[in-house]
Amino acid sequence: MAGLLDTIIQGILLGGLYALFAAGLSLIFGIMRLVNLAHGDLIVLAAFAILALGSGLGLDPLLATLLALPVMFLIGFGLQQILLNRTLGHGLLPPLLVTFGLSIIIQNGLLQGFTADSQRLQAGAIETASINLGGGVAVGLIPLLTFASAVIVIIGLNVLFYRTALGRAFRATSDDLATAELMGIDHHRTFALAMGIAMIVVTIAGLYLGMRANFDPTIGPARLLYAFEAVIIGGLGSFWGTLAGGVIIGLAQTIGANIDPEWQILAGHLAFLFVLVLRPRGLFPRALD
Amino acid sequence: MTRSGQRNSIDRRSLLKFSAASGAVLATGMRAPAIAQSRAVKLGYVSPVTGPLAAFAEADNFILANFKEATKGGIKLGNATVPVEVVVKDSQSNPNRAAEVAKDLIVQDKIDLMLVASTPETTNPVSTQCEIEEVPCVSTVAPWQPWFIGRQANPGGGPPAWTGFNYTYHFFWGLEDVIAVFTNMWGQLPTNKSVGGLFPNDGDGNAWGDKQVGFPPVLEKLGYKLTDPGRYQNLTDNFSAQINAFKGANCEILTGVVLPPDFTTFWKQALQQGYKPKAASIGKAILFPVAIEALGRDGNNLSSEVWWSPSHPFKSSLTDVSAKDLAGAYESATKKQWTQPIGFVHALFEVAVDVLKRTPQRGDAKATVKAIAETNLDTIVGHVQWNGAGVPPFAAKNVTKTPLVGGQWRLKDGNKYDIVIVDNRTAPIIPTAGKMEPIG
Fold first, then answer.
1. How many CA atoms, within 13 angstroms, populate the side-chain half-sphere of residue A267?
2. Does this complex have an ipTM over 0.90?
């Protein structure tokens, strides 16, 4: 019984990590229909930014993250304004190819700058701290923080999306770009802001990626697949859906691994396929497109 | 339609250019034998300079600079002194790319001898290309089983179906050595002999966990009980299933061959969930100091196989420096801690020079292969001689083994670690510097 409970708790917490990886992707995809193949590499880039700021200024990773947030926001804003906006509106392929190229550039740029050494964001004793729930079930503090951060990020994105003028602009450009332009919304600037905000989420994801395990310049793409699946399971444009998608994959993986570790990854993919068969548009799709 | 038709047709001008170019190629081709007498000896070297395996090749530049310095006056071949040239190619940690650059080295650069190092993903495709193209090749830094068995037409066929190779030779240790080293280290500690195995679904994991040639049969014979939950996928974010299984079986010993990021994930999660074995001997993950430093203070007393260290009592046949001085020179040149591949990459070039010196008929693949087979050289990683010692008969021709011992990472001031050799029963010539300690 304790084993089953532990499996479920670990699965849900793992889902928080996947949701965090996926939230930025969900935002970008939801607003501008941009499939960002460099998302995983941007997370790794953020982790390196935190590492560089942290070791350069002698700061704790958490403090370094606070400094990295505005930097990454500006990088995202500039990236969208200068590069990605030019690729939109000519079909699905140009942004796909450009972000694919971007992924290679980021990987090799990081390799040049930071070498291939695996790095880690070290947070001291908190790394192995855990809360004992009794009955042989213990919950690690970092996984718990990861999940809490995912929930806070999702609440934050929802507030931004549904309670602010900027959110209205996001929704308007997402629903009908031409009409939104007629209403005086500069969609290039809106997209650039969206990418900047996505980069903030990416930086938070980078923090937890770097605290949880080693990272090196080439590790990004491996994290991309689960993020995509979480977005699709949740339904396009729904942030709570993305969290649900992450939790479903996390749970499927831990339960699968409990049967046999060979089943871990497969179980996650099977859950994804299962949801696609039952609800092809995901669990909580926002718009009917 | 018409436009593309025009584009594809050959006009007079490009035909002329083409024939001039091919004429020139033909002419150089025909002149080649005459040039051969004065040209440099060419070594091809393939290693993973970029990509996930790049840590293995980190010392390459240092070693190559050393090598250039040592051979700047050329080497003596018979009566003549000829310059040596090394053509380095990056495999990008990708087996397909490794095969491709190997082919380039053979066909375009026309190398005399191929050298290749670091993991089966690099050594195997390059060795295979050399075998096909009949170019002599020396490889290292991959356990011999994946190198030898992995390149067989039928890897599951067993010894009668497995055949030796004519052009490719390998020096390193084997799975049987790492098993002996690990069990020797565990024998130093009082434990309940219950072992947890962490084997991923990749070449190494499948070999280590194999029920015939891997850990299971040896552990059973020595009275250990192995808990192997099954093969997991690399780059996993969650190990709770394995941790629960090991806790359930009260595994006081942990072993496995794990990728560095996966081991960090596992170890942190294990400590969070209250699983702390007395001994943890892990292959691959904690080979490099940076990987153990990534664990913060939780890496103390983790153990690993040691193939080369500054305390190995060997010296270079090429530059006469000792293992200690080579590591020291690397540290002062790069401001980085020494790593195990340094010695082996250096030894690879030692073997190459030794072989070339004994092959006056340059460019003759058969003569070079004969010289490799007759190698009898004391290198910075130990004695290299393809005499079949300690290797099963089917691989005796192509494989020779270098000594392997066991070491434990010990925390020293701050966050830095040193590896301390704690068990040398597999190679008593290498001194120990301490005893095995349980993880505190």
1. 22
2. no
Calpha distance B353→B369 (Å, rounded): 13
Contact A264 B232 (CB under 8 A): yes
d(CA B438, CA B252): 10
- Residue B438 forms part of a structural domain: no
Q: Is the dihedral of CA A98, A102, A108, A109 positive or negative?
A: positive
Domain boundaries, position B275: 176-306+404-423
Given a contact cutoff of 8 angstroms between Cβ atoms, the answer to whether B141 and B118 are in contact is: yes
- With CA atoms as reference, report the closest residue to B306 among B418, B419, B159, B150: B419
Q: Note the pLDDT tens digit of each residue in B73-97.
A: 888 877 788 899 999 999 988 899 9
Name every residue whose Cβ is closer than 8 Å to that of residue B345 and which is 6 or more positions away in sequence: B47, B59, B60, B63, B117, B140, B141
Length of chain A: 289
Whether B346 is in a domain gets the answer: yes
Cβ atoms of A219 and A44 closer than 8 Å: yes
How far is the C-alpha of A59 from the C-alpha of A240, rounded, in Å? 33
A131 touches chain B (CB under 8 A): no
CATH number at residue B198: 3.40.50.2300
Specify whether B213 is located in the same domain as B296: yes
CATH of A2-111+139-278, one of 1.10.3470, 1.20.140, 2.60.120, 1.10.357: 1.10.3470
Q: Are strands B75-77 and B137-140 parallel, antiparallel or unpaired?
A: unpaired
Distance separating alpha carbons of residues A43 and A223, to the nearest angstrom: 9
Picking from A106, A107, A214 by the largest number of B CB atoms within 10 A of its own CB, the best residue to mutate is A214
pLDDT tens per residue across all 289 residues of chain A: 567 888 899 999 999 999 999 999 999 988 888 889 999 999 999 999 999 999 999 888 999 999 999 999 999 999 999 999 998 888 888 999 999 999 999 998 998 888 777 788 988 888 888 888 877 788 899 999 999 999 999 999 999 999 999 999 998 998 888 888 888 889 899 999 999 999 999 999 999 999 988 888 888 888 888 899 999 999 887 899 999 999 999 999 999 998 888 888 899 999 999 999 999 888 888 755 4
As a whole number of angstroms, the distance between CA B140 and CA B120 comes to 9
If you count residue pairs, one on A and one on B, with CB atoms under 8 Å apart, how many are there?
133
Q: How far is A31 from chain B (nearest CA, A)?
A: 29
Which residue in B has a C-alpha nearest to residue A258's C-alpha? B241
